């Protein structure tokens, strides 16, 4: 099985994007200086997914030892496992890059919000909360924003902190809107503690704007950073 941290070897056709050397970048933060609640929540979830994928592969391998022709009947299992490992590899690279590894310079996932939001939802469910569907297909990430991790990290952290501020057994409703002026993410979680997130957001993505109050929170990005999904509206 390919190393989950090998960002080039597991990139899917049509998804991984090679970024020109001139793409803007920022030096990675010192790991010991960063408090990252999203990373702490995501790692057990990703580890569980990788363990399940490994168990499934072991099962297929055991069948092949008995019947070499069994592979054709289990091809769907291998295909599904491939997608799980691919998503897990990107999520692990996202976490590592947010702590200085800079692994996403060669792999920019336009569709990275899909596995990220699914992972955040699983994180919240482990804490007795939930994340609603946004109501429309998730936007694609522009491939030339920062080092590739700052944009999805900020959205994932915003969602996670907002969701965990909800009362137990509550589902966080959220939405986003794309326009010529930029992208605007909104939710009704007004009691979330964004103090640490605001400081790091200002350092990593100073162009982003986070506002919070009793009515809820909004996270805004410049035009072109997020775009309608390919094939979408």
Task: Sum this structure up briefly.
The chain is built from 5 helices and 8 strands, in the order αααββαβββαβββ. The protein is of the alpha+beta class.
Secondary structure: elements and pairs:
Elements: H1 37-66, H2 75-97, H3 113-126, E1 130-131, E2 140-141, H4 150-164, E3 171-172, E4 174-179, E5 182-187, H5 195-204, E6 209-213, E7 216-221, E8 226-227
Parallel strand pairs: 1-3
Antiparallel strand pairs: 2-8, 4-5, 5-7, 6-7
Description:
The chain is 39% helix and 13% strand. The chain has 233 residues and is an alpha+beta fold. The chain has one domain: Heat Shock Protein 90, CATH 3.30.565. A four-stranded antiparallel β-sheet has the order 4-5-7-6, covered by helices on one side. Strands 1-3 form a two-stranded parallel sheet. The protein has a two-stranded antiparallel sheet with strand order 2-8. Helix 1 packs antiparallel against helix 2 and helix 3 packs parallel to helix 4.
General form: globular
Radius of gyration: 19 Å
Q: How many domains make up the coordinates?
A: 1
Could you name the ranges where pLDDT drops below 50 across 5 or more consecutive residues? 1-33
Report on the biggest sheet. 4 strands, antiparallel
CATH architecture, please? 2-Layer Sandwich
Using the coordinates shown, work out and report the CATH topology. Answer: Heat Shock Protein 90
């Amino acid at each position: 099985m390919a190393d989950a941290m090998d960002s080039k070897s597991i990139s899917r056709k049509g998804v991984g994007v090679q970024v020109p050397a001139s793409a803007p970048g920022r030096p990675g933060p010192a790991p010991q200086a960063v408090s990252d609640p999203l990373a702490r929540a995501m790692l057990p979830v990703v580890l569980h997914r990788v363990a399940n994928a490994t168990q499934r592969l072991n099962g297929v391998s055991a069948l092949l030892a008995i019947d070499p022709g069994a592979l054709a009947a289990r091809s769907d299992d291998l295909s599904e496992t491939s997608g799980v490992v691919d998503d897990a590899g990107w999520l692990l690279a996202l976490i590592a890059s947010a702590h200085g590894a800079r692994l996403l310079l060669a792999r920019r996932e336009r569709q990275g919000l899909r596995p990220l939001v699914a992972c955040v939802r699983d994180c919240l469910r482990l804490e007795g909360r939930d994340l609603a569907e946004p109501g429309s297909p998730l936007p694609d990430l522009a491939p030339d924003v920062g080092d590739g991790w700052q944009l999805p990290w900020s959205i994932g952290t915003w969602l996670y902190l907002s969701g965990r501020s909800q009362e137990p057994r509550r589902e966080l409703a959220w939405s986003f809107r794309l326009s010529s002026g930029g992208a605007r993410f909104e939710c009704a979680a007004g009691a979330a503690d964004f103090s640490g997130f605001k400081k790091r957001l200002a350092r990593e993505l100073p162009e982003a704007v986070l506002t919070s109050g009793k009515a809820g929170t909004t996270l805004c990005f410049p035009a072109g950073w997020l775009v309608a999904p390919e094939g979408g509206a």
